[in-house]
Amino acid sequence: QAFFCLLLCVPWGSSCPPSCQCMEQAGAKAVLCSSRHLEEIPKDIPKDAVFLKLDANSITRIPSNAFRHLSHLEELDLSRNAIEKIDRAAFRGVAAGLRTLDLSSNRIRSIPKEALLALNAKLRLANNPWHCECALQEVLWEARLDPDSVQDITCHTAPREEYVGKPLLQVLDAGVNFCSVRQRTTDVAMFITMFGWFAMVIVYVICYVRHNREDTCQHVDYLKSLPSAQGHAE
Known about the structure:
Layout lengths: L1 H13 L6 E5 L2 E5 L16 E5 L7 E2 L12 E3 L7 E2 L13 E3 L10 H5 L4 E3 L5 E2 L2 H9 L12 E3 L10 H6 L4 H56 L1
Parallel strand pairs: 2-3, 3-5, 4-6, 5-7, 7-8, 9-10
Antiparallel strand pairs: 1-2
Pfam families: LRR_1 (PF00560), LRR_8 (PF13855), LRRNT (PF01462)
Keywords: Leucine-rich repeat, Membrane, Repeat, Signal, Transmembrane, Transmembrane helix
Subcellular location: Membrane
């Protein structure tokens, strides 16, 4: 009996990352990797994992396709890490089924909107040193944020000093639109570029006209000198 029990335990135990604990919760596979001093996401997470806890580690980046093989994943906890960079395709493969994604209490300043807007999961983004900009505003408008944590999404840096330290939702409620600011900046840059090209064309035309006028004057002077030259010859 002990031998058969060992055989039954080996497949699940062998597929579990050595730094994690794997168990069943209400008939679903849970992988618990909390507080294990991990610096990156384990590569050998079981494919049938439904709950994955990677909180309280030292993970700094979520690379592309980090969870692509976890098609059954519903809850993902990445809170209390040192995450600074999230790739655009970080959650590819789990976007449809994921119900909860916790990215709170990290070092995230900005995030590609493509990484989150495809998700149907409820997001927790609180307690990060956010740089308030258009991309973050679009995430706030279109993503499914956890209502209990929205007020804790604070502007650590911003285009204007008066927004720093304030909840992003409060800034937006006051009528600020970071996307329109970026659009105005783009419009000004385009205007300056077009004005520069126009000025170059004008300068070229003026130089061209002056050059032709000088050539014409020289030619006219030459023609005027021809009769007198013939008179001297006679």
